[in-house]
Here is the input.
Amino acid sequence: MTAVWKKELRQYRTSIIGAVFLASYGGLIGYYFVVGNLLAMNGDITALFQSVYSTLIVLIPILTMRLFAEERKMGTDQLLFTSPVNIGRIILGKFLAALEMFCLGSLPIVLDAAVLAFYGCFRPLETAGCFVGLFLAGSGLLGMGMFASSLTENQVVAAIVSYLMMILLWLLDYLKYYVQGEWAAKLLGYLSFQTHFRELSSGIFSFSAVMYFSSLTALMLGMTYLVLESRRWR
Amino acid sequence: MLRVCGLTKRYGGSTAIQDISFSVKTGEIVGLIGHNGCGKSTTMNIITGYLAASEGRVLVDGEDHVEQSRSVRRKIGYLPEAPALYPEMTVEEQLRFACDLKGIQDSGEAILRACRKADVQNVGRRLIRNLSKGYRQRIGLAQAFLGNPPLLILDEPSSGLDPYQNAEMRDILKEASQEQAILLSSHVLSEVAAICNRVVVLSNGRLAADDTPGGLRERFRKPGLFSVIGEGGMDIFQKALQESRWFSDIRTEAGERPGVFQARFSCQAEDALSCLIPVLEESGIHLIQFGAVLPDLEEIYFQLTKDQRYTTVD
Here is the structure.
């Protein structure tokens, strides 16, 4: 697993994708902070976290689209899948590398929080909750992107599938106003990405939200495993 | 070292290979040949664990690929048809990564030995994307050599190499075969005949033959077909053969040295040499070589795979 993780980090470091992700993510975080907090003279950091989510939908597929699609296209998956490392560890190595990049990209938010704290607008628990929410939501989205990447050898297709999955999950929230029956509305409420993300990014610690994002990540990694393993049998 | 027993692979409704069985011993180079789509790569992919077999078993050093997958994978060095290399890495980075994947402890020493074996010591710091196809092939080979695995699976190792590189590759493989078992696939039959101790022919996803090149030649020898290399008058010899009632289908051609010629003919007599001696004496020919005409591997291959190209087992 360490070998794959190190290799992925090296590839992010040396390829244009890593640089594009970090530059765009950092730039957008800066923009949201300046416009939403500094210019608006708003000391509430939760506003920044809520804006960041829309950015994640756009940027995370850039980070994940190549993870398995490129390996398959280049034929380097033959090296990975014939090595003594099992598929689960390969998936985990790649996922952790992408997660590390995501965390690295999120570092400017720590700086923003520090600036707000300097001006006396710092609520530690709320801010910590927001960071946990961002981390968990990011993991879920990275899992989705990785799953999409395992489905195809075309990176563009992988990115489009990721966007579709993320947008569908985001739009699920609006369906609850139209479904009949209390249980259906409850189910949609539980499946809603928005609701859970809103809870965490507002600084509310919600166990169900933590479970939701953790389960989503585990489900996506599990499905990636099934896709890759089933390919051996097809 | 390698035993393949009753291997079958089905893709949906079609069968790629059916009931393939063969073995490779340490010190042996076995050539896997067959037309495109006959199942060579599928067989190799199953042996390396990249694909799972629908039926059958693969045993490496007595260990089952399904039950002891991790241990088996450590014992295999694999060069796929297109070497599995990352273009943005340097050769050293690539080989170090492969060492890490294989769990090789002393990667520096392993890389040095593999590079020496594949003769690529001088390109360690170069980016793979900047290397020629021949070098990439050899880096792929060095990758397969890492950790000195007892079994090497090489899918078309000479693909895209020029004649010099081809000859070098042959030498590398011959040297490696002294302590390793090698299974290689190739479309270059002259190369297979030159370096392989045994040949496994696949046709239409089934095993068509498994024998030594000599054994195959003997098996496919056309009875009654002989050749002679002689010195003297070629025309007189040809005329004498034509006049004898034992010989037919006579073909002669001049040899490389002046006065030396080659002749091929059919003889229906049980003891062809006894019939030939009077003809030689009569025409005053000095006999240099006499023997039965054995078909080359290409002829055998065509016979074995005739009319089977581009069809599936089903």
About this structure: The interface with chain A takes residues 11-12, 45, 48-52, 70-71, 73-74, 76, 78, 80, 82-89, 93, 97-98, 100-103, 143 of chain B (CB under 8 Å). The two ends of chain B are 31 Å apart (CA to CA). DSSP finds eleven helices and 14 strands in chain B. The mean pLDDT of chain B is 85.
